[in-house]
Design goal:
It is built from 3 helices and 5 strands. By secondary structure, the chain is an alpha/beta fold. A 5-stranded mixed β-sheet has the order 2-3-4-1-5, covered by helices on one side. The longest helix is centred in the N-terminal third of the chain and has 17 residues. The chain is globular. The termini are far apart. The relative contact order is 0.17.
Length: 180
């Protein structure tokens, strides 16, 4: 059964309470850490760690090398919410469950989302650890995670995908990648 809006609210309220109880500012930026990037969460200053298993209605990753936790902390002076481990369709989760955190992030006030993954298999020219930027995609997901009741609080049912990736953020990502 697909989550109802009150489930998203309950998840967001729980996360917000843990962050504010620890005296942290609520972040406007979230990052979903893909394979091999979990160590990024360890670089956040003054971290607040929230295991997925403690968050109401949140799926729990079954991939052994992913920690399965949200980490809120500072990177420089910027509050960041890092999703350390994710839920995969291949683990047996429904597509809507893999997208569930995005709705929760919206309710938390997240304005920018960076999603990382291990996409190196897309080209023989890439080696493990190479940085690449995905600028566009063809959705091959079946079923679509947007199926089911639409909650207006999250926005339109079918968002404009002609600009799914923010051009300015992509340009900034390229500049950062060139530095490293």
């Amino acid at each position: 059964m697909k989550a109802v809006y009150s489930d998203y609210v309950e998840s967001a309220e729980y996360i917000r309470s843990k962050i504010t109880e620890a005296g942290q500012k609520m972040p406007k930026l979230a990052i979903i850490l893909g394979s091999g990037l979990g160590c990024y969460a360890d670089t956040l200053e003054d971290p607040v760690t929230i295991p997925y298993k403690d968050i109401p209605h949140f799926p729990v990753s079954t991939v052994s090398y992913q920690k399965g936790e949200l980490v809120c902390g500072l990177r420089g002076n910027v509050p960041v919410l890092a999703m350390n481990g994710r839920f995969h369709y291949y683990e047996g989760w429904e597509m809507w469950q893999t997208a569930y955190p995005i709705g929760v992030f919206k309710l938390l006030g997240i304005e920018k989302l960076i999603i990382t993954n291990a996409a190196g298999g897309i080209s023989d020219d890439l080696d493990k650890g190479d940085i690449m930027l995905i600028e566009d995609h063809i959705s091959l997901f079946c079923p679509n995670p947007l199926i089911g009741k639409n909650y207006d609080e999250f926005g339109v049912r079918f968002p404009d995908m002609s600009r799914a990736y923010d051009k300015k953020l992509c340009e900034e990502a390229i500049k950062c990648a060139e530095k490293v």
